[in-house]
Amino acid sequence: MTSTPEPATRDAVLVDPGWLEAHLHDPSVRVVEVDVSRRAYDEWHIDGAVLWNVYADLKDADYRLADAAALQQLFARSGIGSDSTVVFYGYAPAMGFWLMKLYGHADVRILDCSRETWQREDRPRSAAAAEPAATGYTVAGPDGRLRADHATVRDGIDDPGVRILDVRTQAEYRGERFWPSGGMESGGRAGRVPSAVHQPIDDLYDDRGAFRPGTDLRSVFPAADGAAAAKAADAVEAADPGRPGELITYCTIGGRASTAWFVLTYLLGRENVRVYDGSWAEWGRMTGTPVERS
Q1: Which of 31, 111, 199, 228 could form a disulfide with 165 if both were Cys (CB 3.0 to 4.6 A apart)?
Q2: What phi-psi label fits residue 182: left (phi over 0), alpha (psi between -120 and 50 degrees) or beta?
Q3: Active-site position among 146, 162, 201, 251
């Protein structure tokens, strides 16, 4: 393993709302809202932002990531060029960030405040869908160091050099629900990947929806409750940037897993973190995948 990198400067991967407002009409900046439906976007969105609907644009019918050709078309019709600064916000901004890094885009950032804060501060908004000029964007090959598929996760269950982090809620982890909303899935199984450490990410943000300081973020990742004390100790080691080995994060559709990956990689400087983007929507619906329940 190479030496542990220093955490990225926050200014390199996060933008405050004042910066974004000042650059909304900069042709080199593209703004993307990532959400699971059109409802919030159609009500209002940051002026000039395009929408990436997780289910319609980023996932196929089996909740697997869209293929490279479809994503290349998405990037192009979003007005993104190879030199664009792309700023994500919304329900799952880290998922957009991870996706663009997966395909090698250089300048990707996340708005460091919530959607509600942008509205509360009366910053520029619109209800009209943005229609940027399409570009000739060409995606590079995906970076396998950032992504884990279901076979990689299965291999990691008994590998002492791999920690699998389940960043869902306690109810999902225990197998009491399939979807975070509380629903079950026809033909699907609720539960967790065997050996996965429960590592919820409930306290990443302050009251403005900005990421907390690094010292606070580091304390989030060891969080686990009484019955999981032994695994919590493992989780402390797993989230320690000085610890060798690989981390794989998963959730339900990849949004929370990408957020954990972003914080660990870019704000805490942890190497060797991968996202299982298929997450439980894939694992829990597949035949033959091992599932544990409490």
Answers
A1: 199
A2: left
A3: 251
